[in-house]
Amino acid sequence: MKRFPTGSCYEGTWDVLGMSGYGTYTFHNGVIYEGELDDGMFHGFGELRYPSGETIKGKWKKGALVERTLIFDDGLPYEEYDWSYCRAPDRSARPVCSQPVSHI
Fold this sequence. Notes:
This is MORN repeat-containing protein 5. This protein is mainly beta and about 100 residues long. Helices cover about 5% and strands about 45% of the residues.
């Protein structure tokens, strides 16, 4: 495992230009990226896992997130269109969804 002066660390494969292939990069704040890298950048498929439980699964291209799915800590995936968060059989938002929007 390689530890960096920033407090982050990396465990995985390397090439002559740096982190490359597959690995796990842990940021100083506890966020963890696990997935593919190229030339020291997120590149390919991977996941960002946050200490609070949320996960972003996605595809990166030279460090830029180009496709993504956000999954909340209870396992509910966010969907940009036709999201069923406040509709049955949703199990987590009933108290929130029962309130008129003006009260949220």
